[in-house]
Write a structure and sequence with these properties.
The protein is mainly alpha-helical. The chain has a single domain, classed as Winged helix-like DNA-binding domain superfamily/Winged helix DNA-binding domain (Arc Repressor Mutant, subunit A). 54% of the residues lie in helices and 5% in strands. The protein has 4 helices and 2 strands. The chain has helices at 5-15, 20-27, 31-45, 50-62, and strands at 2-3, 84-85. A two-stranded antiparallel ribbon has the order 1-2. Helix 1 packs across helix 4 and helix 2 (20-27) packs across helix 3. The longest helix is centred in the middle third of the chain and has 15 residues, at 31-45. It is globular, with a radius of gyration of 12 Å.
Length: 87
């Protein structure tokens, strides 16, 4: 299963504690669009909460486990998203 660059960006921002409105402001969309993206992300990943996404992000992306990482996620606080494949 593959996440789009936009989905990865949203995961990164959510993992930093951003609200839907704050994520929307950062990526130039509306909070409702962010909510819809989150539902798609939950469906793709099998996760059901922002906490699960944040924990997954910290574990897999920022730690680079299983060579699954966001190309730009060198530091948890600066992740800007990129192409990411989960599997």
């Amino acid at each position: 299963m593959e996440l789009t660059p936009r989905e990865v960006s949203i995961i990164c921002l959510v993992s930093q504690g951003y609200t839907n409105a704050e994520v929307a402001e950062q990526i130039g969309t509306t909070p409702m669009v962010v909510k819809n993206y989150l539902q798609v992300i939950y469906d793709k990943t099998g996760m059901s909460s922002r906490l699960e996404l944040a924990l997954w992000h910290v574990h897999h992306v920022t730690q680079g486990l299983n060579e699954t990482r966001c190309e730009r996620c060198r530091d948890f606080s600066t992740c800007q998203g990129s192409r990411l494949i989960i599997g």
